[in-house]
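Cast an eye over my tokenised protein here and flag anything odd:

===
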Amino acid sequence: MLPKIYDVQPAVIELEAGDHWWCSCGLSGHQPMCDGEHTGTGMRSKKFTLTERMTVRLCNCKHTKTPPYCDGSHVGLEKV
């Protein structure tokens, strides 16, 4: 069942300014970024743009209400 919970903790990573694509399905082999594994699932990646280099907390449980950013929705979820 999608989205697949990749992890129950956010990915805290530093990203360069520019466009990025967050994995919303949990199938990517390059979490938390999209690698196209969602093809055929009906799900889509989430494009987001940073205006400067910064550290971000990206959702890994895929249940955030504020994609691509972690909003704490992982609390109480289990990785399967």
User: Anything to note?
Assistant: Strands lie at 11-15, 18-22, 46-50, 54-58. The chain has one domain: 1-73. Residues 1-73 form one domain.
